[in-house]
């Protein structure tokens, strides 16, 4: 039996400092991570570069914000956080129920 999918909205802060990958290539990599946890991406919005309200690193004062809407099983957000923790291109990730 197929598990029921829930809708989620995720906000990612991408870190492309010193990397040859473009923002679009990093977004494609994040999409692949969502698909790897049995998710299906429905919408992607590149919000652009924004300054941080509180800087934790003076060498990194701003990041590229991206929002993605996707549907996935209930356990997918925890799996996604674990997979993205190992991804150096994703600085922060926030997954909310939509």
Quick take:
By secondary structure, the protein is of the alpha+beta class. It is 24% helix and 41% strand.
Features:
98 residues, alpha+beta, Alpha-Beta Plaits, 4-stranded antiparallel beta sheet, 2 helices, 24% helix
Structural account:
The chain is an alpha+beta fold and 98 residues long. It has a single domain (12-53, 63-92), classed as Alpha-Beta Plaits. 24% of the residues lie in helices and 41% in strands. It is built from two helices and four strands, in the order βαββαβ. It has helices at 23-36, 76-85; strands at residues 6-14, 40-51, 62-72, 90-97. A four-stranded antiparallel β-sheet has the order 2-3-1-4, with helices on one face. The protein is elongated and about 45 Å long. It starts with 5 loop residues before the first strand and ends with a strand.
The parts where pLDDT drops under 50 for at least 5 residues are none
The total strand number stands at 4
Order of SSEs:
EHEEHE
Provide the CATH topology.
Answer: Alpha-Beta Plaits
């Amino acid at each position: 039996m197929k598990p029921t999918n829930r809708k989620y909205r995720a906000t990612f802060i991408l870190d492309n400092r010193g990397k040859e990958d473009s923002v679009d290539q990093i977004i494609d990599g994040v999409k692949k991570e969502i698909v790897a946890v049995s998710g299906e991406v429905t919408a992607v919005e590149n919000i652009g570069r924004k300054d941080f309200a509180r800087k934790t690193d003076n060498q990194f004062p701003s990041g590229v914000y991206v929002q993605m809407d996707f549907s996935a099983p209930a356990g997918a957000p925890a799996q996604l956080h674990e997979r993205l923790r190992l991804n150096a291109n994703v600085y922060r990730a926030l997954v909310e129920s939509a």
